[in-house]
Amino acid sequence: MQIKCTINAKEFSFDTEVTTRVLDIIRELGFTSVKEGCGEGECGACSLFFNGKLVNSCLLLAPQMQGAEIVTLEGMKEETKLLRENFEKSGAIQCGFCTSGFILRGQEYITHEHNKDAKAIGDALDGNLCRCTGYQKIIEAIQKSMK
Amino acid sequence: MMKIIGKSVQRVDASSKADGSIKYTDDLEFNGLHADVMRSSIAYGKILSIKYDANFDFSEFTIVDYKDIKGSNTNTILMDDQPFLVENIVRFIGEPIILLAHRSKEALLEVKKHISIEYKEYDALYTLQESQERKNIIFGEDNIYKSINTCKGKEPDFSTLNRLTRTYSTPHQEQLYLEPQSMIARYNDGEIKIIGSMQCPFYVESALEILTTKKIEIEQAPTGGAFGGKEDYPSLMAAFVYLLSEKSQEDVKLVYSRRDDIAYTTKRHPAQMQFSSYFDDAGKLYGLEIEIALDGGAYCTLTPVVQARTVLHIAGFYDCEYIKVTSNSYATNTPPNGAFRGFGAPQAIFAIERHIDDIAKKLSLSPIQVREINLPTEHSKSVTDAKIEEYKRVRAIFEKARIASNFDAKYIQKKSKSLTKSGIGMALFMHGGGFIGDGETVLASQVWLELYQDSRVEIKISSVEMGQGAMTVMPQIVADTLKIPIEFVSYHTPNTKEVANSGPTVSSRTVMIVGDLLRQAAKKLQSSLKNYSNISSYQNRVKVYLGEKPSKRFEAQYIKPKHLKWDEDKFYGNGYDGYSLACYVAEVDIDPVTYQVKVKEFYAYNDVGEVINPILAEGQVEGGVAQGIGYALYERIVYEQGRVKNSRLSDYIIPMAADLPKIEIGFLESDASAKGLGELPMDGPAAAIANAVSNALGVAIDSIPILPEDVEQLCR
C-alpha cells in the first residue's frame, strides 16, 4: 500500500506491505537510532513519537502510519541537548543500545512531569529496559536535566 | 599536568550513543541477503531425511548445509565435539542444521515451511540430575565433560567438631544484552570480511580458520552489550554468514530475533553444590568437603574453564585448614551453556556465602561473628593451597561494609520460622582477574602502540568496547603513563588484520592484564623519547624522534610474574594473577500479601586496587548488582523437555528501574595495582540477598531465584 506521512518534519511517501512494522520502515529509511531489542513492546529500544505520543514502533503496522507525524531522536537534536549532555556526563550510557529510547522517554518525562524524586522517575521508566547500567545514572541524568 | 588516572574522563563514545548516530551491526549500510537458520525440533536423535518440497521454487534461495564446509566442521573451543552445522545427530532443540539466505526476510519465513526434517528420536537427558544418574549416555563414557578435584591441608579430627551438610543450587541465567547477536559477511571479489557484534575477534578468526582453512578478516562493530554471551557464540554467527556469503557471492546478514537469542544461545551454567563443613562451637572452620556439579548443556564449549573458576572461588577467602573439592561437569540435551559475567564464580559465591550463614544459624551466632572468626591471616591458604596474599585487604573490606551498613545493629536472628517484614544479609567475596592458572601464559597477549607524526598514539589491541568502557579507560592508562593529554590517544577498531592479539575481552582481564601491557609499551615509547628531553614540547620531541618515518610501533607481551606458580594436575597454586575483593550487604522487605521480595537497601564495597575512572567503575558495580538482583529474585529460564518455554522479554523477567534500590557504592583504594572489576559485582548480590531473605523468614534459602511462589511455600 501507498503511505504518506511526516518523519522528523519531512514528508515521506512510499509503498509498503500492510504487514510491515513501523519499526522496520523507519529503520529502512535510515533512522537507525530506533532499535529492535525485543520486538514485542517490552524494552522500549524502538521508541519514537507518533502523533505526539511516545510509542513502541515494533507494535505498530504500516497502515497506522498513514498521515501520521513521526519524530525520532534524529529529529529531536535541539530539544534533547541538555538531557543528552547529562547522560554523557553522568555515566548513564554503557553499551548504548537502549540509550535513544531512554533519551526520548526522559525528554517526555521532563516535558510533562515535575517530580524530581528518584522513585517517581524510576517508576516512569517502566517501559524501558537497560541491562548495563542498573538505571541509577539514567535517573540521575534525568534529575539533573529538570528545573 | 593533571592526573588522568582516577579521573572520570567522559566516555569517548558517549555522544554518538546519546544522539543515536553510532552504527551497530544491524545499522550498517547493507544491500545483500538476509539469513536464517533451520534448527532441530527435537532434543536428541538422528536425522533420517531432509525433504525439500518439489512444488516449491527454491531457486532464489541460498541454501547451505554441512556439505558446503570446505575445512573442518568443528567449532573447536576446548574440545572438538561441536559441529558448526549438524551432520547426523542433533543434541539439543534449536541446533543449526540448514542455513538459508534471501533478499527478503518474508521469503525466509515462507521457505522454512517447505523443508521438512525427519528424525529418529533417542532418549534425551533434560536435566543435570538425569545426566548424573546416567539414565542414558550422551557424552563419552559417563556424560562428564571434565572432573576437577583438589585437596589441600590436613584432615582435622572430625569427632571433636560440629558438622553441617547442605546443598545449594543455582539456575540458568540469560545474558540479555540489549543488542541481539548480529553478524555481517561482506563479499568483495572472492574475499569475505566478517563484521559483527563480538567480544573476541581472534576467537572468531580461529573458528573460521578451521571452517575455511584460511585466515579471514574479522572486525568488531560497536557492540550493544555482551556479558560473556558474545565470547564464543559469535564464532557460530560468523561461520553461518561466511558460508552463505561464500555460496551466494553476496553480502549476508544474520541478526537473531530476541526469541531465537534467548532460546538457542548460551546461558550461565546451572550448578549444584553440596557442602559438608566441620567447625567448632565458635564457628571456626577446620574442614570443608565440597562436591560440585555443573550442567554444561549439549556441547562442551567453555564448560571446563567455568568449572575451574567455580572450584577456585568455592571456599571464598576464608581461613580453613582442610578443603577437599570434587567437581564434575555434565552433558545434557539442552542448548550449550557458556560464558556469563562471573563465569562460574557467582554459583560458588552463592553457595559458600549461604553456607557461612547456615553455620551461624546452626550455632545461633551472628553471621558476622562466623565471618569474622574465619577471616584469613598471613598463614591462610586458599582452596588451591596458595597463600592468601590479600588477607589484609579482605579484613579491610569486611570491616568497611560491616560498619557502613551498620550491620550489627540491624541484624536480629529469628528463633523460629516467621514471616517478618525485613531481613539483612552479607556476602564477602573475591574475584580472580584474568585467565586461570597458566591461561595467561598460553594466551601470551600482545599490545601495540603506534606513534604517528601528528603526535597521536594509537592503541592497537583486540580488546573491545562492549559498554564497559575499554575504549575510554585504556587511553587513560596510556595518557597517564606518557603524561600527555588523553586527546592524543586513540583506539583502533579491533580488526584481526590490523591490531595485536591482546586476547579475548573476557575474565575481567582488560584493565588488569592488557592495561598493564599498554603501560609497559607506553614506557618503551617514553624512554625512546627521553634522548630528546632537551626539546621543549612533546609534539616536537615526537617529530624529531620519528624524522622521516610516518610512524613507529611499540610492543609489549605478557610474561607471567615469577612468583606465580601453577600445577594444573594437582590443581594447586596461584589460580589468578590477582584478586579483587568485595563485601556487599542487602536489606530486603517481603510483602506479606504478595510474597514479593524487594531489595530495600544495597551496600556494595569493592577493592579493585587502583580505580581508573570512578564514574565508569561505579557504572560497572551498579549494572553488575542489577544483574545479580535479577539472578537472585527474577530471572528463571523454564525448560520443558529441553525446550525453552519463556524466550521473550515478557516472560523472562529482568529488573526494571523500579525494581532496584539505591546502591551505596564505595571503592577501597588500596595500594594494589588495578585488578579486575567487570565480573566482581555479579558474584555477590545473590548470596547477600538470599542471606537477607533467610534472615527475614528464619528459613534457609538453598536456591535461586527466590520467586514469590517460593517464599509462599517456605512460609507455609
How much helicity do the residues of chain A have?
A: 25-40%
CATH class of the largest domain in chain B: Alpha Beta
Q: Any idea how many domains of chain B?
A: 3
Q: What coarse outline of chain B follows from CA principal-axis ratios?
A: globular
* Domain unit count of chain A: 2
| N-to-C order of helices and strands of chain A | EEHEEEHHHH
Q: CATH H-level name of the largest domain in chain A... which superfamily?
A: Beta-grasp domain
Distance between the termini of chain B: 65 Å
Provide the gyration radius of chain B in Å: 26 Å
CATH T-level topology of the largest domain in chain B: Aldehyde Oxidoreductase, domain 4
CATH architectural group of the largest domain in chain A: Roll
Radius of gyration of chain A: 15 Å
Q: What shape does the CA trace of chain A take?
A: elongated
Give start-end ranges of low-pLDDT stretches of chain B: none
Going across the major beta sheet of chain B, what is the strand order? 3-5-1-12-9-10-11
Structural class given helices, strands, pairing of chain B?
Answer: alpha+beta
Q: Helical percent range of chain B?
A: 25-40%
